[in-house]
Structure formats: structure tokens, C-alpha cells
Amino acid sequence: MKFPVRLPRGLTKRFIFLGLWIFLLPMTLIFMLAVFLSQQTLENQSDDQTFEAARALSVQTRQVFDHQIDMLETFVFDYRNDENLERLDERAAQHTFREPVFSSLALYDAGGSEAVPDEAETDENENTMIEDPAVRQVFEETVWRRSTFVKSITEPGGHARIFISVPVQEADHQPITGALIGEINPSYFYHLIQTSTIGERGWNLLVTSDGTVYTDTQENRYRNDSVKDEAIFSYLSRGRMGAYRGDFLDSDSVAGYAPVERLPFYAVTIQPESQAGAPIATLQQVLSSGWTVLFLAGLVLLGVSARWIVTPVRKLTDQAMSYAEGESWHLQVMKEEDEIRTLTKAMQFMADDLQEKERFLQRILASFPYGVITTDSDGIITSVNREGAELLNSRPKVLTGRPVETVPSKGLSRHVRALCSRKRPFSKESEEFPYVNHTGQKLVIKVSTTPLQNEKRERIGVLTTFWNHTDYRKLEQHIQRSEHLAAIGQMTAGLAHEVKNPLGTIQMAGDLIEAEMDGLKKKHRLNSPAVSMIEEASGDIQEEARRLNELVTRFLKLSKPHKDEETSLNVGETVEEVARLISHQMKRADITCNVYHKAEQLTVKGDRNQIIQAFLNLSLNALEAMKETESGVLSITVSREKDQAKIVFHDSGDGIPASKLNRIFNPFFSTKQEGTGLGLSITHDLINEHKGSIEVESEFGKGSEFTVRLPLEPDRTERKEAN
Predict the structure, then answer these.
(1) How far apart are alpha carbons 36 and 48 in whole angstroms?
(2) What is residue 131's predicted lDDT score, i.e. its pLDDT?
(3) Are 65 and 150 in contact (CB under 8 A)?
(4) What pLDDT was estimated at residue 570?
(5) For the CA atoms of 106, 109, 115, 117, what is the dihedral angle to 10 degrees?
(6) Are 232 and 119 in contact (CB under 8 A)?
(7) Dmax of the chain from CA atoms?
(8) pLDDT value for 90
(9) Using an 8 Å Cβ cutoff, are 649 and 636 in contact?
(10) Do residues 686 and 610 lie in contact, with contact meaning Cβ atoms separated by under 8 Å?
(11) Burial, 346: exposed, middle or buried (Cβ in 10 Å; 0-12, 13-18, 19+)?
(12) What are the b/e assignments for 15-34, b being 16+ CB within 10 Å?
């Protein structure tokens, strides 16, 4: 049977035509794209270089000011010890001589006069008040601010000046007794910022917050000029940092800008557009020459390939047509057939070997004791091992191929997404996140992330290892708490030794005075004001001795809480009793106390007084938190949670800041200025002594919730079954 389709003619022409479209045209497009992308890359690099230089200049400037502020504050702090204004003034003068950063540095008293005027130049009645309006403005601001600050002032003539002012106070938060005011020397910064210019024609400048050039490296050509009308100032005034391309001070420039942290001026680094674009022009020339060479080489290659490729293809096609017509298949027509077959077998072997290695890697990941997630550079999950999926209460197939935001742990997903989006290289990043699993259990997840790289060390994704860090964190907190309690135990032991003995003597003396006075009054019928005064003093001695004894007892309880007598307690009735104890204080503070518990009898075994003390401490703590709140509400809820009694104290107070939440159970730590810091610490110890637990959740501005869990006492039936 004859095959109906014949081999088309002109295959060489078609090969060359297709080669032009498939090879040369895409190559041209690729070169054009490469030129464009390279230009963009170099521009971005130039922008990044300029921005990094501006940021470095900002940091350098900030460090200079921090150093000078530290020195001046040290002078003022030393003054608090010796209160010698002349010595403070002398140290300021010596500092001005040593440090060229100041053009002037003067000490003024609380009235605005020179604290130590020059006797040789000042008459006795001469007024030494501040005459310089700018200095006067800085001094007046120092009076009401009472803190160190940096001030930039532009005078009506456009002259920019920068001052550092440090208040002189007898103690913190007290009215000032003077001020140490120094004016920055612009010449110092002129020389300082010259060291960080970019290239031969780059230059730097510092701009004040109102847009006035304080100094620049162009021989102060633009000093005291205003840049408020420049486009870049709109970014500066909003505190932004970055790079700007465009017209700046009548020239095309690339400008990096960054605010100087917590200071009223900005750092700007500039290089001309011609200097910044020089590498781009060179690259375009090189790429154009390369494209020309490759284009000509491609034409030659197409001509040669036409003979090397088309001829074997035509022979192979003839063989295929012969096979279609019923002839036997024989591959000896092409001499290259053996190499093709060998290549096919080699590729099949490599594919099988690669598949086996992939299965081996999957087995390793499956047996790894930690969770492992890999993502590509776009944040798409490429693999999850079994341990990681179980920790996240999911399955590998559910998570693989989906965005990292699919992961139940929001902290973990944000961490991975941030690293996938990060442009700059990183080696290893570690963090901890809170995570509530599907059962409601609160866990701490420890995460360690490293970049995934190909053979060229290019980042193609990230590899994240994570594990349950909860037990380690609890152990660490327990160790810290044990150290605190050990220190308190030593302190209370010493306190008891030093206070108990003289305290007993004082109490005995007070009792003796009272008994003697009673005997004298009856015997001599004394009834004078002096006798009443002695009796009152004796009562005060006994009362203060009793109060001090209670304080020592509290310290001893904190050092080693102990249960005097264990009894069976109805939790609901105990909470009701606590609510009655604080009802008067609640009414006086306009706070409502609501107690919620079911009729179910929840019984725990423990020291009644200690449990009441713990509940009372939590209630009074809530009362203190709501004193400034209008119509506050304290809700106490009693419920059963498996084999535990759960007591929740929820208040509508101001809440606890997140930065302080982990320390509220530490001894002597208090969020209130007048607090002792012992109430919650004692409560924590009392609950632990009863084999219970206490947790706190709080959102600043929305109130706090303390949850106490105590083991329920087994009922009689359960005890019999256990026996």
C-alpha cells in the first residue's frame, strides 16, 4: 500500500525561514528585553546605592548627635551630685574646646540668665539675660519640655541654625534649674558629610525640617537656600526614605533621602544623572555589539544546520513512509541512531535515578521529628512533611500547591511570606509564635527559616522548620520564677531575723506601757491630757507593730506558702463569699460585680483561707484596674471543665500592655505606681500550691481576664471505684 502523503519539497528553505522566526527573532526580542531589564536593574542599583548612602549619612549624623547628647547629659547628671554650677560651666567650656561640633555652648539658670557670667566682662548690675532670639526660643521650650531635645530654627533672613538643649534638674520630672544649650557648628558637618559622597561628582547635604539647606558639600553653595518647592521635599516632609530621579536644584539628578531618626532634619545624597547612567550606556553598547555578532553567527549556523539536520530528517521521513507502506523498521539508515538510542536510555536511567532519590528524600522528610515546609519564591507551598501537617492539624496534600496563607498559624504564614518577599539576602531567621490548635490548646511554635538555593546559589524559595516549643518555654518560665522565689526566700529569711526579735520587744513594751498606765490610772485616778496622749501613743505603737508583723508574715508566705488545713470547699459558695466581702468597696467605686455559676456542686479540697485570699486578690486587682473606668463591671464565672473547676475573673478596666503581660506574676512587679507587686505573685503561688493553674489574657484598653483552674475533689463513688 502506498502512503498517500509525499515528502514536501523546499524543506531547507522552510528550515531557514523557521530558524529566523524561532531563533533569530526571539533572540532579538530577548536582547531587547535584556537591555531593558538590565537598564532597569542598573537604575535600581543606582537608586539603591544612592539611598543606602543617604541612610548611612543619616545614621552617621544621628550617631554624632547621640554622642554629644550623651556627653552633655553626663555633665548635667554629675551636677546633681556636686551641685556646682561653676564646674558644670567649666566642663561645658572644655567640651566646646575639644569638640568642634559646637560653635557655642552656654549654661543658663532657671530665669534665662547666664548661670556663671564672666566676672571680668559683666558688671554687678548688668543684665545677663539671653539676647539671641533663637537661643531664647530654645530656652523657653526647654522650660516646658523638661527633657533633652534638638531644635532647628530658620531665622527671618533664611539662616538655619541647629541647637541641642539639655535641662538642668535636681531630679527627674522636677522643674528645671537651668539649661545647657549648644549651637551646632555647620562647618563641622560640612567636613563630616564630605567623606560619604558617591563618585567624583556626587555631593551631600543636610536639610532642616522646614526645607532649609543647613550645609552641603558643594562649598556650601546652597547653604540657607530653601528646597520646599522641590518635588523631593514632599517626601521628606512626610518622613519617608528612598530614592528620587528628576530635577533637583536645576539639574537632572538621582537623589537618595532619609530622615535623621528623631532629629528635625534630613540627609540627602545626590549624584548627577550622567554619572549614575554611565554604566547603563556602557552596557547598552556591549549588548548591541554582542547582538550583532550573535545575529551573524546565527545566520551561519542556520546554513550549516540545514545540512546537518534536514538531511537526516529527510532520510528518517523516508524510512517512516516505508514503514507505513508495510516495510520492516530498520534504524541503520541513520548512523546517528545508536547515539540517539544511547541518549534515550541514559535519560531514562537518569529519570529513574532521580525518581528514586526523590522518594528517598520524601522518606527522610516523613521521618523527620520536626515540621518542614518548603515554598517557592512566590510563597506557594511546594512540600510539607507529615509531622508539620499533623502539628498544623492538616494533611500534606491539602497544603501542597496552595499559598502559604493557607497555613492555620497566622504568625507562621506571615513569617514565611515576609521572607519570600524579602529582596535582600538572608542566611537564617528564627522566631516564636503563639498558636491555638484545633482543640483550643495554646502552643508556642518555634520557627527556623533558611533560603532554598539552586546550584548557582540563587534563591528559589525558602525552607521552614518548625516545632512545638511550648514545654521548653514553660520550663524556662518555671526556672525564672524559681530563681525569683529563691531570692525572695533569702530576703524574707533575713527580714524575719532582723525584724521579728525587735518587733516582739516593741509589742511587749507597748503592752507593758498600757498595763502600767491602767494600773496608775486606777491607783491614782489619773485623768489628764498627758495620760490620754500616752495611752494614744501606746496604742499607735501596738497598731504599727501589728501592721509590721502582718507585712513580715506576707513576706514569709511569699517565700514559702503552706496550707494550714485542707477542707472540702464549694467553689460557687466561696466565690459568693468573696463577692460579699468586696461588695462595699465595689459600690463605693460604682462598679458592678456579677457572679455566674450553675447549681452543680463543684467541690475542691484545700486551705479555705488561702483560696479566699487568692480570689480576693484577683477581685481587688480588678477593682483597682476599674477605678478610673465609669460604671465598671466585674464578672466572676464558675464552671466545670473536665475534672477541674474553672473560675474566670473578667473586668472592664484598661487592660495590661502586652509588654508587661509576661511579668505580672513576678514578685515586686506592679503596673500601678503605688502597688507592692506581691498580690498577683502570692495568688500565683497559692493556686500552684493547690495543684491548680492561673492564666491571664488582656487587651490594652479593653480589660483583662484571669482564669483559675483547680482540680475537683473526687466524689465518694469515684473514690470507692478507685479503691
Answers:
(1) 18
(2) 83
(3) yes
(4) 92
(5) 80
(6) no
(7) 153
(8) 83
(9) yes
(10) yes
(11) exposed
(12) beeebeeebbeeeeeebeee
Residue 629 identity (one-letter amino acid): T
Do strands 566-570 and 591-597 pair parallel, antiparallel, or not at all (unpaired)? unpaired
Helix, strand, or coil (residue 634): strand
Grid coordinates of 299: 545566520
Angstrom CA distances, 666 to 48, 559, 573, 618, 698, stand at 47, 13, 30, 15, 17
Q: Which pLDDT score is estimated for 705? A: 92
Residue 691 to residue 611: CA distance in whole angstroms:
12
Phi, psi of 563 (to 5 degrees): -95, 125
Cα separations in angstroms, 214 against 154, 220, 248, 329: 9, 9, 16, 88
Q: Give the whole-angstrom CA distance, residue 584 versus residue 580.
A: 8
- pLDDT score recorded for residue 649: 94
In what side-by-side order are the strands of the sheet with 252-259? 213-216, 203-208, 265-272, 252-259, 242-247
Q: What is the block-wise mean pLDDT of the chain (723 residues), using blocks of 10 residues? A: 47 66 73 76 82 88 90 84 78 83 87 67 55 89 89 88 90 82 89 83 87 85 85 84 84 87 89 75 73 74 65 58 52 47 50 71 78 88 86 85 86 85 80 83 85 84 85 64 61 63 72 76 73 76 77 65 73 90 78 86 88 87 82 90 92 84 74 64 86 89 90 66 49
The secondary structure element, H or E, covering residue 501 is helix 470-524
For residue 114, the 8-state DSSP code is B
> Which run of H or E residues covers position 652?
none
Measured CA to CA in angstroms, residue 178 lies from 84, 91, 125 at distances of 12, 15, 20
Q: Is the pTM of this model over 0.85?
A: no
pLDDT value at residue 493: 59
Q: Are 76 and 88 in contact (CB under 8 A)?
A: yes
Question: Is 328 buried (19+), middle (13-18) or exposed (0-12) by CB count in 10 A?
Answer: exposed
Q: Residue 101: count other Cβ atoms within 10 Å of its Cβ.
A: 21
pLDDT on residue 546: 77
Q: Which residue's C-alpha cell is 489574657?
A: 697
And the C-alpha cell for 415? 513569617
